């Protein structure tokens, strides 16, 4: 069994019937989505900030609260600062995090270091409402 599979199994153990769950982006979250699909957990509401994960789930603007939000990242330090690269959904991930009672990063142990990795490229996202139209 790989680390990624054990991460998704641990994550799915936190999900209970009747919860509203947000699934962000990344491989670990996709593995969790597959585990959820194969599980016997019923009556959950799914939403996602990710276009790739969003198929057949509720958009964030239809959700009032989220019990658990799961997301991946590329680097985490001991103070739980996290770096994400690429993806272009950071704003919507932050919205999902703010709506959540509990926010959980699905991260392999090797990505947790004393300091954030300088090898992770920084990503800048420009949100549509922030663009001034002339």
TrEMBL record:
Leader sequence segment: none
Q: Name one GO biological process term.
A: D-ribose metabolic process
State the InterPro entries in the record: NagB/RpiA_transferase-like, Ribose5P_isomerase_type_A
Q: Name one GO molecular function term.
A: ribose-5-phosphate isomerase activity
Q: Which UniProt keywords apply?
A: Isomerase
Gene Ontology annotations for the cellular component aspect, listed alphabetically: cytosol
The enzyme's first-digit EC class, named in words, is isomerase
User: What EC number(s) are associated with this protein in UniProt?
Assistant: 5.3.1.6
Q: Which SUPFAM superfamilies match?
A: NagB/RpiA/CoA transferase-like
| One Pfam family, short name | Rib_5-P_isom_A
Tell me what this protein is called. ribose-5-phosphate isomerase
Gene source species: Lactobacillus helveticus CIRM-BIA 951
């Amino acid at each position: 069994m790989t680390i990624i599979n054990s991460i998704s199994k641990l994550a799915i153990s936190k999900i209970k019937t009747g919860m509203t769950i947000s699934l962000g982006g990344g491989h670990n979250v996709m593995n969790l989505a597959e585990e959820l699909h194969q599980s016997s957990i019923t009556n959950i509401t799914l939403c996602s900030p990710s276009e790739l994960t969003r198929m057949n789930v509720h958009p964030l603007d239809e959700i009032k609260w989220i019990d658990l939000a799961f997301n991946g990242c590329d680097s985490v330090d001991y103070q739980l600062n996290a770096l994400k690269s690429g993806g272009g959904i950071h704003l919507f991930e932050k919205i999902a995090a703010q709506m959540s009672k509990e926010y959980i990063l699905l991260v392999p142990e090797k990505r947790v270091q004393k300091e954030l990795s300088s090898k992770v490229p920084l990503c800048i996202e420009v949100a549509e409402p922030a663009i001034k139209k002339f």
